Amino acid sequence: MKKKLLKTILNQIFLKHKLSKNHSEICSNYLIKAEVLEAKGHGLARLKMYCDRIKAKVINPKPKIKIKKISNSVSCVNADNSIGFVAADIGIKQAIKNAKKTGIGLVGVKNSGHYGLSTFYAEQAVKKNLMVFCFTNGPPAVAPHGSKKSLFGTNPICFGAPTGKIPFILDTSTSMINRGAIRRASKLGQKIPYGVALDRNGTITTDPNKALKGSQIPISTFRGSGLAWMVDILSGVLTGSSHSGKTKDPFDDFTGPQNMGHLFITINPKIFIGGNFLKEMKINVSRIKRLPKAKGFASILYPGERKNKTYRKNLNKDIFIPSKILKEINYLNAIK
Ligand SMILES: NC(=O)c1ccc[n+]([C@@H]2O[C@H](COP(=O)([O-])OP(=O)(O)OC[C@H]3O[C@@H](n4cnc5c(N)ncnc54)[C@H](O)[C@@H]3O)[C@@H](O)[C@H]2O)c1
User: Fold this and answer.
1) What's residue 86's pLDDT?
2) How many angstroms is it from 123 CA to the middle of ligand 1?
3) Is 80 exceeded by the pLDDT of residue 336?
4) Where exactly are the structural domains of the chain?
5) Is 172 a pocket residue for ligand 1 (Cβ < 6 Å)?
6) Mean pLDDT score, 129-141
7) C-beta of 37 in contact with ligand 1 (< 6 A)
8) Is the CB of 154 under 6 A from ligand 1?
9) pLDDT tens string 5-17
């Protein structure tokens, strides 16, 4: 489908679900961006879930979002159970403002929901020549090391820095695969890769439905579990949001809002070495890229480079929508 048409349809759907024009635009843009980046587990496959949660009154379509100033650097956003895209968009913009004023911005967001890709927010800070960390927790998916029961979300860690060229953006789940990819495979009747998830008996499975009832494997065993725990503390405990397995699954649990938390840290990279930062970054990247290549590698990529290429490759292409998801979109758009 042409992006322009898709955007009109998505806007219509969000407006019908009582979001404001501005909030509808934000949500439509991020869903389309996820598709363009080929992060399809965070794109249109989630649209129905957001709409179902609004209908069930567990996402507030008309939130009264409040930003509390704690200091010139630190702010707290109370998202009033808005859709996560909107809350996170406000959060990162405030973190950028704070860092521009003082050199460092720290913004906690509470009472939010699933915000999609951390890259969306990191890119905004890097475009303003800032370094950035983005964290969000999520519903139970990963078992803490030593436990049989999943409790941590796939809790992504995202770090961005300007390079003078394509931004460095490391944006990774702390699990072997993001949960969105498993949800989408389940919806479309596809298998998931071997070695990323266990069924409820602890056996490796490639069946997404068994994986959703079991647990996802963290990256690098106890290290990934530890990183997921760290993200839970930073975005859940620190911001006053749900944590330690209490974040509701957006697809399965409609008993209340997710009360999810996010944390954004923005840093002016000039604080220590002034204008030399970009010069040193260029040296850093080129030294690493010039290293002898391992077998099978023509080049060494830094995090963010491949996504940037994917984005540019797809920017002017139509978006392929599987028939099952297209049916959901048409159904939502037909609602009076
Ligand atoms: N909102 C949520 O609750 C939630 C939860 C989990 C993940 N996510 C999002 O899902 C998205 C996908 O996560 P993922 O873990 O599947 O990411 P991924 O595995 O596709 O990529 C992880 C990182 O590795 C880098 N990378 C990939 N190939 C590389 C290569 N050849 N050389 C060097 N670097 C390379 C990427 O640039 C990226 O920074 C992320 O944007 C993340 O924020 C969101």
Assistant:
1) 98
2) 14
3) no
4) 1-55+305-336, 63-175+220-303, 183-217
5) yes
6) 97
7) no
8) yes
9) 999 999 999 999 9
Residue range 63-175+220-303 in CATH 3.90.1200.10: no
Q: What is the mean pLDDT of residues 284-312?
A: 98
Find the 301 Cα to ligand 1 centroid distance in Å. Answer: 14
Residue 112 Cβ inside 6 Å of ligand 1? The answer reads: no
HEC string of the chain equals: CCHHHHHHHHHHHHHHCCCCHHHHHHHHHHHHHHHHCCCHHHCHHHHHHHHHHHHCCCCCCCCCCEEEECCCCEEEEECCCCCHHHHHHHHHHHHHHHHHHHCEEEEEEEEECCCCCHHHHHHHHHHCCCEEEEEECCCCCECCCCCCCCCECCCCEEEEECCCCCCEEEEECCECCCHHHHHHHHHHCCCCCCCCEECCCCCECCCHHHHHHCEECECCCHHHHHHHHHHHHHHHHCCCCCCCCCCCCCCCCCCCCCCEEEEEEEECCHHHHCCHHHHHHHHHHHHHHCCCCCCCCCCCCCCCHHHHHHHHHHCCCCCCCCHHHHHHHHHHHHCC
Query: Measured from the CB, is residue 216 less than 6 Å from ligand 1?
Result: no
From the CA of 41, give the closest atom in ligand 1: 10
pLDDT band of residue 320 (cuts 50, 70, 90) is very high
CATH 1.10.1530.10 fits 1-55+305-336, yes or no: yes
Ligand 1 mean position, distance from CA 173 (Å): 6
Instruction: Give 311 Cα–ligand 1 centroid separation in angstroms.
Output: 14
Interval between CA 68 and ligand 1 midpoint (Å): 31
pLDDT tens-digit series, residues 209-234? 999 999 999 999 999 999 999 999 99
Is 0.85 surpassed by the pTM of this model? yes
80-117: pLDDT as tens digits: 999 999 999 999 999 999 999 999 999 999 999 999 99
Q: Is the pLDDT of residue 299 over 90?
A: yes
Residue 171 Cβ < 6 Å to ligand 1: yes
CATH for the stretch 183-217: 3.30.60
